[in-house]
Amino acid sequence: MTNGQGPATGTAGAARSGRRGRSRRIGTWCATAVLACSAAVMGAHPAAAAGKPGPVLVDHPQKPQAVLTPGRAGRVTVQLKNTGRGSARNDGRMYMEIWAPYGTRFTDTRLTPLHGAPGGWACKGDAYRKGVPYESTILRCFSDRHGQVARAGGTAAWELRMKVVPGTRAGTTLATTPYNRGAVFHFGYRGRSVWTTMSLKVRTPGKAHRAHRRAHHGGRHR
Hints:
The protein is of the alpha+beta class. The chain is 17% helix and 32% strand. β13 and β14 form a beta hairpin.
């Protein structure tokens, strides 16, 4: 099994160089988001700044991990958890940028809210190839929906549809993205900005290199 530190197949490897070039052109918003997310996420929240109990948003990886058969579309989620004592709320425009791990693609541009997460998202992919309009490697989304993002102690999740590149080996974990983050999420409340990141990871069914190990050990005992 791979650990997500590199592409698992020749197809994914060929795509990696192209995606590196595209990642350099993601834009000012993305670069700002990545830099901001390296700081404490909720430190600028109004409640926290005032010394009151406030929300603390952290990554909440999908469990069990999404398992996708190469070449077939499936559902994957990005999730966050509010570990603080206050509700996280939004009263401005929300933004989310999501990167497909190397060796995977988004099969459409829908971002579906789960568990009471805010919805109303409009997303655009990076695929402009003729005949393949929705197989994107990046989704850039925004929503003007106001209200609760995640209650105290609660979670918020958003569902995506993805597929793994055909030919990917069994038991492969795909998690590496251009910025080693699955998604960057930004929203605002009472004039303050809140940033957080979420992971995105998928696995192919089966055990890694099982046939190879059997053949290798069989050869050693002959």
